[in-house]
UniProtKB/TrEMBL annotation:
Domain of life: Eukaryota
Record protein name field: Retrovirus-related Pol polyprotein from transposon RE1
Disordered: annotated segments: 1-21
InterPro entries assigned to the protein according to its UniProt record, in alphabetical order: RVT_2 (IPR013103)
Positions of the Reverse transcriptase Ty1/copia-type domain: 11-101
């Protein structure tokens, strides 16, 4: 959890501001997860700070939402193209990818 907090602060994820007068604030909570090795022993502890978005009411607190994810057909098309052209394919994970989403 300390590493996650340091990353949030390093990336200047938030500004402390007074809450709006006529609007409710959204709470947050920490989600913890254990990554296990194939033999079942603990590999590492992970922590993620999430907003309690389930407390919001559509058309009262917000006006729509979306999730930016790649469609399976797009990934399959890119893999087929890479295979047909003998391209190397790499996979990566981006830490703190959604810190400044809007």
């Amino acid at each position: 959890m300390d590493a996650e907090i340091q990353a949030l602060e390093h990336n200047q994820t938030w500004d402390i501001t007074p809450p709006p007068r006529d609007e409710k604030t959204i709470g947050s909570r920490w989600i913890y997860k254990l990554n296990l090795k194939p033999d079942g022993t603990v590999d590492r502890h992970k922590a993620r700070l999430v907003a309690k978005g389930y407390t919001q009411v559509e058309r009262v607190d917000f006006f729509g939402s979306f999730s930016l994810v790649a469609k399976v057909v797009t990934i399959r098309t890119l893999l087929a193209l890479a295979t047909s052209r003998n391209w190397y394919v790499h996979q990566l994970d981006v830490n703190n990818a959604f810190l400044h989403g809007s």
